[in-house]
Amino acid sequence: MQVRLQKMQTMQEKNIEVFASRFDYSHHAQDILDNCETLIANETQVKVSGRIMAMRGHGKTMFWNIMDKTAKIQIYVRKDVLGDELYDTFKLYDIGDIIGVTGTVFTTKTGEVSIKAQDITFLTKSLRPLPEKWHGLKDVETRYRQRYVDLIVNPNVRDTFVKRSKIISTIRNILNDKEFLEVETPMMHPIPGGAAARPFVTHHNALDMQLYMRIAPELYLKRLIVGGFERVYELGRVFRNEGISIKHNPEFTMVELYQAYADYKDLMALTEEIVSQTAQEVLGTMKINYQGQEIDLTPPWNRITMIDAVKQYTNVDFNSVDDLDKARELAKSLNVHYEQNDGIGKIINLVFEELVEEQLIQPTFIIGHPKEISPLAKSNKLQPELTDRFEGFIFAREICNGFSELNDPIDQKERFLKQVAERASGDDEAHMMDEDFVTALEYGLPPTGGLGIGIDRLTMFLTDSTSIRDVILFPHMRHK
């Protein structure tokens, strides 16, 4: 850094602007590579800008590689073209500096498309050296803490986030084409709701009241369905004060949508369409390779009830279990730990999470969740202790959650009260009572299907990323 600072000072003494204001480029590197024959034939002058990633040569000629957002391209620099005064300043340039180049396109004897520089404009001095070119930036912690460096030296990382942006825009296009209205609901809630999760707590000074960062936008979006909007969605951040892992980050992105006059089956079909069409749009195929495993996203996906999935993978049948002691006995036989306050439904879910989820590699909808773990979902008509709910799993990871929405205000209030009791007994992820939401239901919520899809996990699958941190630009980490 000291050497670079000295170079910067020398450049300033030579009246070279080391932190320029703008540069009017005409092409990106990839444009030139794609259209080189036409540019060469017409002797078109091009202007490109980018970061110096390599410098070689000596005497009266040099070759540099510069990189912009699209690609790297070689720059051919000759002293007799640029003049002694400008050429002599190049010894003050470093890898990592940002420059603008004006010149014409040609191909070298080895066939490499290059730009013969007619003028060089210095734009920004890089005061810190980049990681050595022969090993790049491999340290995972440094990559996440200094994502800006990671993006410079690892082009595949930039490609991941370009794909992420395309995934989000594709989902928006699909929903907009289906006449869903994109809305914005509060991120700070007086009562956290819409999911079983521990919230972040904050305080509003002017109102002197405690607020919670939203764990889900669900209850506000359903209020909008009550208000007369028939199709709404929100794509944005939610916050859960929980652990960090390769599958979890305390703030993450999801799209949540609600469709009036639809049920959970309609929303399963919509999920298949969103995920498969997004893969087709972004990758050009519905068959992806994830961690060496081919995953076929083509609809229809497999469907199986939670209880039948448990039976299939553990040979234990909860279908006829209506006695808590029997459920506990079965859990013990499978070495699945449960809490004293857990009912039959929670025990079934615990067995599923510990012994079945890891088996669900190809896209699979798990349906028929116990009412005990689904306080906002409509009960199944034939089996009232189960709900019309689904979760989508790919490669043993939950990617979406949806259900036919509970629109009975009396039932909803009773379920909230039960959740309050569970919270009082020590379950800090249980729902709080939301009287205003019950009031909204009392005005009448039409039959409605709801769905939430995790954008980060979907991006992981479509970019073959092993960790959620690889698809979040600035993941949370401990203090250094």
Description:
With 480 residues, the protein is α+β, with helices and mostly antiparallel strands. The chain has 2 domains: 2-130, Nucleic acid-binding proteins (OB fold (Dihydrolipoamide Acetyltransferase, E2P)); 153-301 and 362-470, BirA Bifunctional Protein, domain 2. 34% of the residues lie in helices and 25% in strands. It has helices at 2-13, 29-34, 36-41, 79-82, 84-88, 140-145, 147-153, 155-177, 218-226, 264-283, 306-314, 324-333, 344-355, 409-424, 435-443, 455-463, and strands spanning 45-58, 61-67, 72-78, 98-107, 113-124, 181-182, 188-189, 201-204, 209-213, 231-239, 251-260, 287-290, 293-296, 302-305, 364-367, 389-394, 397-404, 448-454. It is elongated and about 90 Å long. It starts with a helix and ends in a 17-residue tail after the last helix.
Task: Please give a handful of descriptors for the protein shown.
single chain, 480 residues, alpha+beta, OB fold (Dihydrolipoamide Acetyltransferase, E2P), BirA Bifunctional Protein, domain 2, eight-stranded mixed beta sheet, five-stranded mixed barrel, 16 helices, 18 strands
Which CATH class of the largest domain? Alpha Beta
Number of E strands: 18
Mean pLDDT: 95
Total number of domains: 2
Q: What structural class is derived from the secondary structure elements?
A: alpha+beta
CATH superfamily of the largest domain: Bira Bifunctional Protein, Domain 2
